[in-house]
Every structure is written in C-alpha cells, then in structure tokens.
Amino acid sequence: MKTQLQKGFTLIELMIVVAIIGILAAVALPAYQDYTVRSKVSEVLIAASSPKSLISEAFQSDSLAGVTAAATEYNARPAAEKTSKFVGGITIDTATGDITVTTAAAATSGLPTDAAGTNVVFRPNVNNVALAAGATGAIDWACTSSTNTTSTARGLGNNAVAPATPLPAKYAPSECR
C-alpha cells in the first residue's frame, strides 16, 4: 500500500505569515513617510547654497557693508527666482546675513501640514560668533530648525533656533537638527 504525502501550508501557517507581514508594514510605513518628507526638505539645503556663497563673498570683500548690500540686492529679486516645488521663499537679513528658507505650502508641495510653510535658518559665524565689523576669517554656517543640536556640537555661537514656525527636527536634514 502506498501512502501519499500532503504537500503545502496549513491555514495557521499562512495566517502567521500574513500577520508578520502586517506588523512589518505597520512599522515601516511611518518611517518611509518621514523619509520621503526629509528627501523633499533636503532641497532647502540646495536652495540655500547660492545665498550662502553670496553672503560669504560679500563679507570677505566688504565686511558688514558688503553683506547689507548683497542681502538688499538678493531680496529685491523676483520671488520666482527664489522658489521651487518644495521651497516657498528665501530671504536674507540685511543686518546679520541670516538666510531664512521657507518650505512651500502643503497644497503645492505635497508636504505634510506640520512641515509646510516652516523655516530653516542659516546663520553665518566667523570664529564661532556672529558676523561683526572688522572680523576676519572663513564663514561657517549654523543651520537650525526647531533645534540647534548639531551647530551647538560644532561650537558655533551664532545658532539660535529658527524663529516663527521652525521646521520640526524630525524632517530636518541632520545638519539642521
């Protein structure tokens, strides 16, 4: 007499596998959503590179007067030159050289509401303090969002947290946390 072997999975085994996949998906989905927002917000760093170069060169060539002139000229540019899908605007403080990059609105960017319309601030430091008349040296930039942990760890003194609706740290690039 021949015996036949049953091949396949039992219902319990299949249910366990489905439950494990469900748990993994429940854990991975929020992390993936935060990751996609962080990748969109990383455009803020790229958008700030041109103004950072402008302020650095202006300070090296003409101290605070150069910063004021460069910031005034940059702020007068049309808004269309300073925006993108994820960047709502860029302004430079004429007195301090601080660069504020605002994320775009949720309706146009697809960013969540707690990340849309928020600010990341880049603050210039020479010898770890704010720009000052007569100061010399290279500019280091302190990037801050709702926190300033990274810039504090780097020893940058001019690193106050971004005022007026800062970007939540969970979405900020690591340089800006």
Task: Please write the string of helix (H) and strand (E) elements.
Answer: HHEEHEEEH
Tell me the name of the CATH homologous superfamily.
Answer: Glycoprotein, Type 4 Pilin
Task: Give me the oligomer status.
Answer: single chain
Q: Which spans have pLDDT < 50 for at least 5 consecutive residues? A: none
Q: Note the overall shape.
A: elongated
Structural class: alpha+beta
Walk me through what this model shows.
The protein has 177 residues and is of the alpha+beta class. The chain contains four helices and five strands. The chain is elongated. The protein starts with 10 loop residues before the first helix and ends in a 24-residue tail after the last helix. Strands 1, 2, 3, 4 and 5 form a five-stranded antiparallel beta sheet that branches. It has one domain: Glycoprotein, Type 4 Pilin.
Which properties best describe this structure?
177 residues; alpha+beta; Glycoprotein, Type 4 Pilin; 5-stranded antiparallel β-sheet; 5 strands; elongated
